Amino acid sequence: MSEWLQGAIARGQQVQDGFSDQRAASLALLQEIKWPNRKTEAWRYTPLRAVERSSAQIKELSPELEPVSIADLQFLELVFVDGVLVSLPEELPDGLVIEMQESSLFGTIKPERHIFGLVNDVLAADVAVVRVAAGAVIEQPLRISNLMSEGAEGHIRVLVDVAQNAKVTVYEHAESQSGSLTTAYTEFRIGADATLEHYRFALQSGNQVSIGGSHFCLLERAQLNSTIIGFGSDLQRLDTDIIHRGEKADAKLNAIYLLDGQELFDLHANVEHEVPNCTTEENVRGIAADRSRAVFNGRIHIHRDAQKTLAELNNRNLLMSDKAEINTKPELEIYADDVRCAHGATVAEIDKKALYYLRSRGLTKGQAQVMLNFGFINELIDQMPNPTLAEWVRPIIRERFAQMEVK
Amino acid sequence: MSNSNVLLSIKDLHASVEEKNILKGLNLEIKPGEVHAIMGPNGAGKSTTGYVLSGRDGYEVNSGSVTLDGEDLLEMDVEERARAGLFLAFQYPVEIPGVSNLEFLKASVDAQREARGQEALTSAEFLKLAKEACKQVNLPVSFLKRGVNEGFSGGEKKRNEIMQMILLQPKVCILDETDSGLDIDAMQVVAEGVNSQRSPERSFIVVTHYQRLLDYIKPDFVHVLADGKIVKSGDASLAKELEEQGYAWLQTEPREDELED
């Protein structure tokens, strides 16, 4: 067992609050768990050295931080700084409640196999519970910001319960300063006929460690539309789980990663089709430059009763250098016989001849790169249901891409 | 010869591709307004000359110098050379599906104008220019909306190259076997496009294997490139001579020709 995990367990034993029962259960599991190494399948390409070596610490006093403002977008803001919930919306629209008290949702949607999810169960200081009442349509998007100051350690946990027929947009936003370490897990229950529009962006890179998950449980005819965007860092790991628990639920997940330098980004996307007649569409696209590494594991598990499932998963990657690395692994487990399931993964190199042709007409390398290959990323941005958020993030991505070098 | 009057100056240029020496002491001086034809057998280094001048990756300059308007060309990146006024019409233009011809042309022209300190054109202004250029090379305007060279025939690709040249208004144009794969009609269109751009300020290097293009684009000078250097230079009549004799004589009397050079 690692020293880091031992320290986490020791600290976890001190935490006392309304969630103590669940925390104790996770603590017991953690004490038994084996610290992942190269042979642990879920961590095979993602070494945990950055966690083991991290000198990040829980801060007694955190600086005041505010999330970046986005022109034309007024959020209902939920702000965590270094793992502590520091600000809630002053006024909440009808049908929306945010509380910090015991909830039976805690730990029920996030699968137990996530070791850092268990760490988060034990260490998340403030657990925020967001409830959207049945039938409520919350027009204003809710932003959950996880802001980490330099060298800080923090763990945040948010539970979102979207009751039947309700509709809400949740944007999980992260800004981490150097040397920080965070785990951030969110559990969403999307009730019958309810709709969740979801975003999770981590648009900075550096020597931070960021591990987290967004876990969704969909009941009858629930709808999920999620967009994930990640730049890499020393260690950036995200687990998404989509569980179809009610018939005719529909999930769409688009994910983008753009990696440079020595960054690492690891996305583990798992879909459980437990019941019949549900649909899943996942598009995951990434570009890796320099010596960066991307890991994508896309698992679709179609249970025996889940007939008439429609599931598609597509992963497309572009390598910009000889030393960049993409580890992509499709995993299909199908136990029902009347399903339609498609799965594809491609890795391509940037077309150097086309790049030269464009440059020979005066376009800079950056312009040419954007023109040649931004399209396939842009396509996913175009699909974001919130156009204002799309227009905000598009130039950020464009600039990031223009800076990545072809080698 | 005074340097001030030279637009492009190539001195003792040695270059290699994948460790293989291709250019072995190329010398050429081009003044504003001149049209130089470079002819020669396959493998002489004709296309390499264009790629080396344009700065293509993998084309290594081992020694020698090249200046454009007195500036060291070899120090510049590919796009800087283009912005300095060098244009290479490719023998095999690259197909780039998914990138619209119009978007590409606008970005290229914007880059040129920026380099010259001119204001960017509005989309409407540019579209007008692009349509005129299309007309000049006999390409339907609908080609502007297609992917760059995507699905174009050989002749359409070459005309697209000339259209780019017309839009970019370069100082030195290198036409790399622009006649290859063209029938007489298509060649005439291309030649007319080129001739329309001849001016006292603009110079051309017309690289070709055959003499027939030079019936339409009249050169001021003709050079024979063999084994990486110019072995013979003359006026337009040299092209005719080559047409009759072929290149076989190169193998038999290379040393004498070197002395003439």
CATH superfamily of chain B, by name, is: P-loop containing nucleotide triphosphate hydrolases
Counted by DSSP, the helix tally of chain A is 8
Sheet with most strands of chain B: 6 strands, mixed
The 3D shape of chain B can be described as globular
Q: What would you call the shape of chain A?
A: globular
- Estimated radius of gyration of chain B: 18 Å
Total number of β-strand segments of chain B? Answer: 12
N→C terminal distance of chain A: 39 Å
Order of helices and strands of chain A: HHHEEEHEEEEEEEEEEEEEEEEHHHH
* Structural class based on helices, strands and sheet pairing of chain A: alpha/beta
Number of domains of chain B: 1
CATH T-level fold name of chain B: Rossmann fold
CATH class of chain B: Alpha Beta
Beta content of chain B? 25-35%
> Reading side by side through the largest sheet of chain A, how are the strands ordered?
2-1-5-7-9-11-13-15-17-19
Explain what this protein looks like in three dimensions:
The complex is a heterodimer of chains A (407) and B (261). With 407 residues, chain A is α/β, with parallel strands linked by helices. Chain A has helices spanning 3-12, 20-32, 49-52, 115-123, 352-359, 365-373, 375-382, 387-403, and strands at 76-81, 84-87, 96-99, 127-132, 142-148, 153-162, 167-176, 181-190, 195-202, 209-218, 223-231, 235-244, 250-259, 264-273, 279-288, 293-302, 310-319, 325-334, 340-349. In chain A, helix 1 packs antiparallel against helix 2, helix 2 crosses helix 4 (115-123) and helix 5 packs across helix 6 (365-373). The longest helix of chain A has 17 residues, at 387-403. In chain A, 51% of the residues are buried. By secondary structure, chain B is α/β, with parallel strands linked by helices. Chain B is built from ten helices and twelve strands. Chain B is globular. The chains are: A alpha/beta (407), B alpha/beta (261).
